[in-house]
Amino acid sequence: MGVAGLLPALKSIQVTKHLSEFAGQTVAVDAYVWLHKGVYSCATELATGKSTHKYVDYAMHRVRLLRHYKIEPYIVFDGGPLPAKQSTEQERKQRRDEYLARGNILASQGKHAQARECYVKCVDVTPQMAYQLIKALRVENVFYVVAPYEADAQLAYLERAGLAHAILTEDSDLLVYGCKTVLFKLDPVAATVVSVSRKDFASVTHSSSDISLVGWTDVQFRAMAILSGCDYLANIPGIGLKTACSLLRKWKTVEQVVRSLILEGKKAVPQNYLQEFRRAEKCFLHQRVYCPLSKQLVHLTDVDGLDWNDDYDTFVGQ
Asked: Which GO terms fall under biological process for this protein (predicted)?
């Protein structure tokens, strides 16, 4: 989930903070992060069709923890499937089906511990499970929104629109979306989070990381992330985060990077890679989201005046 290696590369600017430091603020939360973690405690029940609400209890415990420290949570749910992630979702479903079949075989053999390991990997969060959490949120008057498509874009929009001061997630993609303050690794016992602030990017240097963000714009950071491989576009084989950073520093633009790789002939650059790169970039910039203020669907970033077409429109969610 997210850009492989990005969070470790930003370790030098990660700051552990106590939740009390965010008192009086609204923090937008990726609901499915909590739901996915919540199912670990009841994976066997869910995989075998038994009734359980443990995943709701897990999420609501964290909602109450934030409120205890005077933080107002704004819970964001994933919505419909985004066309841009169709291949990624198909691969994930295939893996879940394989783990479910393996788990059932192990359970039938009495190997329940091994079966549980498979069940943990096969359980998916369903809309019905999300709805159970929504009902609990309504009871306690907690703000929530179901995104038209991906929660990531919706979370980014809430921060950009001034409806949230920070984002709580486990997905490094939020940094690629341009979020200013992203919180990771909520520790409910210590009541701490690990904060990454966009304003500190310039402090990431080769002396502290495998990559350097000194002097880089949002455009260059986003290009590096996409080039290294993301949910919307597989990487060119052999191109990870460190290599993507080096290539962009040398050749300046993605077009020049791809051209040099093709001429060199050592990497297998997929056909139409540049076209697919541009479509992936559109997802990070212009995915459709719901605006709670105007109560209508809007683009994360306005497309007026851009060279926009029906293909892009479908890709980022109609």
From this structure: DNA repair
